[in-house]
UniProtKB/TrEMBL annotation:
The gene is KCNMA1. Pfam families: BK_channel_a, Ion_trans, Slo-like_RCK, Slowpoke_C. Residues 640-668, 1067-1135 are annotated as: Disordered. GO terms for molecular function: large conductance calcium-activated potassium channel activity; metal ion binding. Residues 1067-1092 have a biased composition (Low complexity). Residues 1101-1110 have a biased composition (Basic and acidic residues). Residues 343-485, 720-864 form the RCK N-terminal domain. It is a multi-pass membrane protein. The keyword Metal-binding applies. GO terms for cellular component: monoatomic ion channel complex; postsynaptic membrane. It comes from Columba livia (Rock dove). It catalyses: K(+)(in) = K(+)(out). InterPro entries: Ion_trans_dom, K_chnl_BK_asu, K_chnl_Slo-like, NAD(P)-bd_dom_sf, RCK_N, Slowpoke-like_C. This is Calcium-activated potassium channel subunit alpha-1. The keyword Cytoplasm does not apply.
């Protein structure tokens, strides 16, 4: 009996015999469990018997009714039954309400229920912690409830568990299953022993370890708190909680039996083991390691270990690998972004690859942008590969990557999209289905805008017609900075501008791309080209010293003194409407707070325009010394536009927005700019010659059959000064949107006879699909064939064209990147290898110039002919001006066989790109960064390259997918008065004296003062720096040369020229007679505009008569004198031209001067009466 004795102390009054009372604790739990189980079973049995009896009574009553029993008895018997049913219904209603109340209290669907559930779980963990503390004491000991603090806390916890057990019992639908639940069993063996402990002043650890089973509910608690949301995380927590709870519970049982011993052995075989030693024993047992340092000695312990090792091993073998797999498969980039105070962040999503990310980061984080205090967060649903991961690590201070999708609101919350400064969506420029790619990006925009409507979004779009879908998004707001960069629109716009001014695409692409300055000592063409490449486009507010001055005066002062080139301003009209004016005239005066657009090498240089003070800096010759002075400013720029002082800041509401609701005023409506009354009178308001916005030349829709030329018809038509578009495509090819190529060439700031004829050479099936968007443009012809056919190329007189454009719609259908451009490269090499008769040729397009408007053309010295540069005729295809579109940048090495470009050389450093003969869509990636830092830059670029496409026109095209003709009104005619890019020749004309060794700065000032022309670059022969004469006709681009830059006679000057109102008032220079064939071939590109009424024929001439005359003209092709009609909308000008098809005399005339428009339009093209 000594083994039954427990320690007795004077402080703890206990049984004087010291006998163990563990059975009392265990009995309380067993009696509670089995007693309750017996009561539930007894209640169910009685309820079942009562139901059976009632069922039998109902059957007897039905039998009595069938047998015709007494009605009185039946009625008397029914009354008490009805009363009982009413009482039962009332009782059931009361019970149901209490049950529902209890269910709400313990349900996690309400706040009270969630709080109660979480509180019960927390108290269960607290009770388990108390057990861990008490496990260091003997299994059974005498303790005073009033002095034992842990016992008091445990008592309070168990009272709460008892109340919660009652709520659960009331809310349970099936009381039997509730009684057998794990949580109920835990309460049976943990709650009653506590009350016994208080009564006996004893403490028995017993089965309190069962509280560890509450850990199984850990995942449910986390779901109630909205912490666990994904299936993988829920599964992982479930597995871990089951494993740990089973482990701790089994360790508690081993701790109990090993420290107590076997009852049948009078507890003599016990061994002292701590709880944590038992935990260790269970782990080595589950893992089948079994070191043997700790083992069970009691029979109960060993018997338990036999069964536990079976279940534990199975659980260990299945749970642990699955847990490891879930942890291993857990997203490495699945965290959440933590915003840094005082630092903005942007979210970049869409097409995330090594190429797209490296190009984006290279431009976004360029050192010329000052300090970019913006963190870049990339979000993509595919984890990055090793190369991309290494790129992120190199920029870890400013770049973070998270795996997820913008279509998932949870992932948007992870990257804090609601606090992001902007969201940028990159497109896959090389996808096989551009419409599907655009649809994906539009869905991304919808998802982001649905989550946070105020977020600013800049997205790339591949197809122009898909931009309209963005307008359907209610929260899409151009005013707040939302922008869509259409790659097809800008790419073809750049190429179209190169048709008007060769090399312009290269210059503009370099301006909005951040390039570091590369210094070259030797005197090579690369030296001057790279000096220009270092220039970028910036914006800055003009100093108050410029207020009141005209734009040309400020331009001259800024260029000469500050060494900056200003090309445009943000102008606010009297109605406070902001608009961007590119090289406006003398009538525009600088206002307070005017924002200027500059071309400079870095942002610090542009600050001079803001700091300039006439009082302090007027006598300073070194522009680097122009710093901020202490003079008081006339206007507080900081108060008006605090976010736009830096050129890299965004212009949200202060600047012009490219939106239908807030359209950019790309044209000016001031009364000074509207054509005079005499000109307006000359316009026939009933003739539709322009689209409804007045921005583009327009004609009624033509059937494609009327513009198709056969090879023989094209050969008979002497085309010259035209644009040949070689297009590769078929029925299955994706449309590239040729309208974006034609629109800039049909801008209304060109006079009609200035428009270059466009001839498409390619598959007729493909061009039929594109024709719906082209049928409203004049001077367009189609030659069905292939650009690889030399016969087709000779038929369209490719040696006489101003530019040959090579495009392909099949580029993205090839997996091999090196073969994507094979068609374009083959066509380019095919043309360059062609040979032509020495007697047939004209001046090259890249040697073409114009005469500045306003010159006295009657003077022999100022003849328009003097503005042209005479060059030898084209005898080889290598001298034909060509621009080739490439998809893969590395393929540029195959275009020129005589260059030494390394295959790894960046595109902008290669000779074809520097010369403007190659263009790749990848250069447009820089626009994403440029638009984010200043969205006015995108508006300026679009204005320059699209010919003046307005948001109103975009909305119209989105609605009708075609241009709508409009009547000529003073308002629409005023829209023609806008600048355009041209090239000025220095060989002859008013600037010939500066062409031979003159300074570029002197030319800049003279052109600006005399003709309001703003020069901004040079197109120079590649070998002009060599002392020996060279036959190479290749030219390269020099952007924004310095003031003292020396000019050579062969230079062509890029300039922004004003619209010439007077160029078209007389047709004298365009009239031709049979005895003046020489003058008919020396038309100047500056002699344009609308004809006077004196030269117009009678408008009563019918279409039949014109068709008859055209038929007669076709029948007389061999005669010397021809009378023909242009396809100008007013069909007005019968001319006489000496036509001797391909004769030596005619070829010699063409060889002298390059005409800007076709000498003879396509024979079959006759414009309908408007």
């Amino acid at each position: 009996m000594d083994a039954l004795i427990i320690p007795v102390t004077m402080e703890v009054p206990c049984d004087s015999r010291g006998q163990r009372m563990w059975w009392a604790f265990l009995a309380s739990s067993m009696v509670t469990f089995f007693g309750g189980l017996f009561i539930i079973l007894l209640w169910r049995t009685l309820k079942y018997l009562w139901t059976v009896c009632c069922h039998c009574g109902v059957k007897n009553k039905e039998a009595q009714k069938i047998n015709g029993g007494g009605d009185t008895q039946a009625d008397g018997a029914c009354k008490p039954t009805d009363e009982k049913e009413e009482n039962v219904a009332a009782e059931v209603g009361w019970m149901t309400s209490v049950k529902d109340w209890a269910g709400v209290m313990i349900s996690a669907q309400t706040l009270t229920g969630r709080v109660l559930v979480v509180l019960v779980f927390a108290l269960s963990i607290g009770a388990l912690v108390i057990y861990f503390i008490d496990s260091s004491n003997p299994i059974e000991s005498c303790q005073n409830f009033y002095k034992d603090f842990t016992l008091q806390i445990d008592m309070a916890f168990n009272v709460f568990f008892l109340l919660y057990f009652g709520l659960r019992f009331i809310a349970a639908n099936d009381k039997l299953w509730f009684w057998l639940e794990v949580n109920s069993v835990v309460d049976f063996f943990t709650v009653p022993p506590v009350f016994v402990s208080v009564y006996l002043n004893r403490s028995w650890l017993g089965l309190r370890f069962l509280r560890a089973l509450r850990l199984i509910q850990f995942s449910e608690i986390l779901q109630f708190l909205n912490i666990l949301k994904t299936s993988n995380s829920i599964k992982l927590v479930n597995l871990c909680s089951i494993f740990i709870s089973t482990w701790l519970t089994a360790a508690g049982f081993i701790h109990l039996v090993e420290n107590s011993g076997d009852p049948w052995e009078n507890f003599q075989n016990n061994q002292p083991l701590t709880y944590w030693e038992c935990v260790y024993l269970l782990m080595v047992t589950m893992s089948t390691v079994g070191y043997g340092d700790v083992y069970a000695k009691t029979t109960l312990g060993r018997l338990f270990m036999v069964f536990f090792i079976l279940g534990g091993l199975a659980m260990f073998a299945s749970y642990v690998p699955e847990i490891i797999e879930l942890i291993g498969n857990r997203k490495k980039y699945g965290g959440s972004y933590s915003a840094v105070s005082g630092r903005k962040h942007i979210v970049v999503c869409g097409h995330i690859t090594l190429e797209s990310v490296s190009n984006f980061l290279k431009d976004f984080l360029h050192k010329d942008r000052d300090d970019v205090n913006v963190e870049i967060v990339f979000l993509h649903n595919i984890s990055p590969n090793l190369e991309l991961e290494a790129l992120f690590k190199r920029h870890f201070t400013q770049v973070e990557f998270y795996q997820g999708s913008v279509l998932n609101p949870h992932d948007l919350a992870r990257v804090k999209i609601e606090s992001a400064d902007a969201c940028l969506i990159l497109a896959n420029k090389y996808c096989a289905d551009p419409d599907a790619e655009d649809a994906s990006n539009i869905m991304r925009v919808i998802s982001i805008k649905n989550y946070h409507p105020k977020i600013r979004i800049i997205t790339q779009m591949l197809q122009y017609h898909n931009k309209a879908h963005l307008l359907n998004i209610p929260s899409w707001n151009w005013k707040e900075g939302d922008d869509a960069i259409c790659l097809a629109e800008l790419k073809l716009g750049f190429i179209a501008q190169s048709c008007l001014a060769p090399g312009l695409s290269t210059m503009l692409a370099n301006l909005f791309s951040m390039r570091s300055f590369i210094k070259i000592e030797e005197d090579t063409w690369q030296k001057y080209y790279l000096e220009g490449v270092a220039n970028e486009m910036y914006t800055e507010y003009l100093s108050s010293a410029f207020v009141g001055l005209s734009f040309p005066a400020v331009c001259e002062l800024v260029f000469a003194k500050l060494k900056l080139l200003m090309i445009a301003i943000e102008y606010k009209s009297e109605k406070r409407e902001s608009s961007i004016l590119i090289n406006p005239g003398n009538h525009v005066k600088i206002q307070e707070g005017t924002l200027g657009f500059f071309i400079a090498s870095d942002a610090k240089e542009v600050k001079r325009a803001f700091f300039y003070c006439k009082a302090c800096h007027d006598d300073i010759t070194d522009p680097k010394r122009i710093k901020k002075c202490g003079c008081k400013r006339l206007f507080p720029v900081e108060d008006e536009q605090p976010s736009t002082l830096s050129p890299k800041k965004k212009q949200r509401n202060g600047g012009m927005r490219n939106s239908p609701n807030s359209s950019p005023k790309l044209m000016r409506h001031d009364p000074l700019l509207i054509p005079g009354n005499e000109q307006i009178d000359n316009m026939d308001a009933n003739v539709k010659k322009y689209d409804s916005t007045g921005m583009f030349h327009w004609c009624p829709a033509k059937d494609i059959e009327k513009v198709i030329l056969t090879r023989s018809e094209a050969a008979m038509t002497v085309l010259s000064g035209h644009v040949v578009v070689c297009i590769f495509g078929d029925v299955k090819s994706a449309l590239i949107g040729l309208r974006n190529l034609v629109m800039p060439l049909r801008a209304s700031n060109f006079h009609y006879h200035e428009l270059k004829h466009i001839v498409f050479v390619g598959s007729l099936e493909y061009l039929r699909r594109e024709w719906e968007t082209l049928h409203n443009f004049p001077k367009v012809s189609i030659l069905p064939g292939t650009p690889l056919s030399r016969a087709d190329l000779r038929a369209v007189n490719i040696n006489l064209c101003d530019m040959c454009v090579i495009l392909s719609a099949n580029q993205n259908n090839i997996d091999d990147a090196s073969l994507q451009d094979k068609e374009c490269i083959l066509a380019s090499l095919n043309i360059k290898s062609m040979q032509f008769d020495d007697s047939i040729g004209v001046l090259q397009a890249n040697s073409q110039g114009f005469t500045p408007p306003g010159m006295d053309r009657s003077s022999p010295d100022n003849s328009p002919v003097h503005g042209l540069l005479r060059q030898p005729s084209i005898t080889t295809g290598a001298n034909i001006p060509i621009i080739t579109e490439l998809v893969n940048d590395s393929n540029v090495q195959f275009l020129d066989q005589d260059d030494d470009d390394d295959p790894d050389t960046e595109l902008y450093l290669t000779q074809p790109f520097a010369c403007g003969t190659a263009f790749a869509v990848s250069v447009l990636d820089s626009l994403m960064s440029a638009t984010y830092f200043n969205d006015n830059i995108l508006t300026l670029i679009r204005t320059l390259v699209t010919g003046g496409a307005t948001p109103e026109l975009e909305a119209l095209i989105a609605e009708e997918n075609a241009l709508r003709g409009g009547y000529s009104t003073p308002q629409t005619l005023a829209n023609r008065d806008r600048c355009r890019v041209a090239q000025l020749a220095l060989y002859d004309g008013p600037f010939a004296d500066l062409g031979d060794g003159g300074c570029y700065g002197d030319l800049f000032c003279k052109a600006l003062k005399t003709y309001n022309m703003l020069c901004f670059g040079i197109y120079r022969l590649r070998d002009a720096h060599l002392s020996t004469p060279s036959q190479c006709t290749k030219r390269y681009v020099i952007t924004n040369p310095p003031y003292e830059f020396e000019l050579v006679p062969t230079d062509l000057i890029f300039c922004l020229m004003q619209f010439d109102h007077n160029a078209g008032q007389s047709r004298a220079s365009l009239s031709h007679s049979s005895h003046s064939s020489y003058s008919s071939s020396k038309k100047s590109s500056s002699v344009h505009s609308i004809p006077s009424t004196a030269n117009r024929p009678n408008r009563t001439k019918t279409r039949d008569s014109r068709e008859k005359q055209n038929a007669t003209r076709m029948n007389r092709m061999g005669q010397a004198e021809k009378k023909w009609f242009t396809d100008e909308p007013d069909n007005a000008y019968p001319r006489n031209i000496q036509i001797k098809p391909m004769s030596t005399h005619m070829a010699n005339q063409i060889n002298q001067y390059k005409s800007t428009s076709s000498l003879i339009p396509p024979i079959r093209e006759v414009e309908d009466e408007c």
